[in-house]
Write a structure and sequence with these properties.
Blueprint: H1 3-28, H2 31-42, H3 46-74, H4 76-94, H5 100-118, H6 120-130, H7 133-164, H8 167-179, H9 181-185, H10 203-211, H11 214-243, H12 248-273, H13 278-298, H14 303-315, H15 320-332, H16 337-366, H17 370-387, H18 395-400
Length: about 400
């Protein structure tokens, strides 16, 4: 294939990947808007609603290595189409959930599986293999920014659907939107031209190699903290804002602003990741999260303070994704990047499960989210400390120097 053809193919893959992430992550960001109106109509407590979305995050994480392996073995197109179908079915089923069990099945299991096939684990693996090394970090940042733009666009859209119609109609419309991932998957079929590295290594050997490497564990647990923060804030910030005396509009606008500023943050982290140490950037990102959460807690909540917090945390929101995915490809190679990233993403989703569930559990027992916010500060500092000792060199270079340690 000629160089212009390769470049055009990579451009199409990147564009389709951005749109799929825009839909998947954008729809996900609307769930916090549904907690109060759906809870009032159906009698679901915040703890019940939180557990449903905790299950969603855990299933998403457990499914990520599975969908990553399906993508590595059978191709990304089929995998993404399956994920989009499950996502759409889950949203439609959620609209008719009339019991906690049905909510857990639809919002938890089905949507969680759908997200496994339509979000970062599979999509960023496709992008990473489609572009050459010198452009890879920037491309990962652009794709991640697409997910953030989805949050910026979909949250006001979802809020308008709820305000103009009701939460039931909003879920049905969002189900149709999620289904658009299926035709887009046809643009992401097959293997890409930069997938030839580590051609003779088996999946099981790559998996064992990663587990024997301490940097892989540092990435796992630091990503755990990222999941704790993002899931808790996405679901509970709109209610926290209303509890503190601001309006539902302010809560929706804060979530949208997080998405808007994360377009800049994700793109910027991807760009910087190609020029600076990725693990050092991760360390600073986590440390600055602690600063902005403290800002939210230490001063009286006003719309201005809320929007400053949203802008700041947005700049740091998903910048972890291109950096973490880029480190996995840089250290362990690209052949099984979707699977290896999927396992690290499981750590992210375990953190998401705990953050979402703990938020609801704590509120039901104390009437406040303060304990979870302060825990988030401590975890941010811990994640920063875990990022500094990551060894960014390829494992082959580390082994050649005798530096690979269990």
């Amino acid at each position: 294939m000629s160089s212009p053809s390769i470049q055009r193919n990579a451009t199409v893959i990147l564009a389709a990947s951005i749109v799929v992430l825009l839909i998947a992550m954008g729809v996900r960001a609307t769930f916090g808007l549904l907690m109060q109106p759906m809870g009032i109509d159906k009698g679901f407590s915040r703890e019940t609603f939180s557990l449903a979305f905790a299950i969603q995050n855990l299933v998403w994480g457990l499914g990520a290595p599975l969908f990553g392996a399906l993508s590595d073995k059978y191709g990304s197109g089929r995998t993404i189409a399956l994920g989009a179908l499950l996502y759409a079915i889950g949203l439609a089923s959620m609209a008719y959930a009339d019991s906690a069990a049905m909510l857990y099945l639809s919002a938890g299991v089905l949507i969680g599986l759908g997200q496994s096939g339509t979000t970062f684990g599979v999509i960023l693996g496709v992008v990473a293999r489609a572009v050459p090394l010198e452009k890879r970090s920037l491309a990962l940042g652009m794709a991640s920014a697409g997910g953030s733009m989805g949050q910026f666009l979909m949250v006001p859209f979802g809020q308008q659907l709820i305000a103009q119609f009701d939460w039931h109609t909003a879920l049905l419309v969002l189900s149709v939107v999620a289904g658009f991932g299926m035709p887009l998957a046809t643009l992401l079929r097959g293997k890409t031209v930069h997938a030839a590295d580590q051609a003779h290594q088996s999946l099981s050997a790559a998996f064992r190699q990663a587990l024997a490497h301490r940097s892989y564990h540092f990435l796992f647990w630091s990503f755990f903290v990222c999941g704790f923060h993002t899931a808790f804030i996405t679901l509970h910030l709109p209610s926290y804002v209303v509890d503190r005396g601001l309006s539902a509009f302010d809560g929706a606008m804060a979530i949208a602003l997080i998405g808007l500023f994360n377009v800049i943050g994700s793109y910027g982290c991807g760009w910087l990741g190609g020029r600076r140490s990725k693990k050092n950037l991760l360390g600073w990102l986590y440390a600055l999260r602690a600063v902005f959460i403290a800002l939210l807690l230490l001063f009286p909540l006003t719309p201005l303070l809320l929007y400053v917090f949203a802008a700041g945390i947005g700049l740091l929101w998903l910048g972890t994704v291109p950096l973490t995915n880029g480190l996995i490809g840089q250290i362990y190679g690209l052949r099984y990047t979707a699977t290896l990233y999927g396992l690290v993403f499981l750590g992210h989703q375990i953190g998401s499960f705990i953050g979402v569930w703990l938020g609801g559990w704590t509120f039901e027992r104390t009437g406040s989210y303060d304990l979870v916010w302060w825990l988030g500060i401590g975890l941010a500092l811990a994640a920063a400390a875990l990022s500094w000792p990551i060894d960014e060199r390829p494992v082959q270079a580390q082994r050649a120097e005798g530096a690979l340690r269990p």
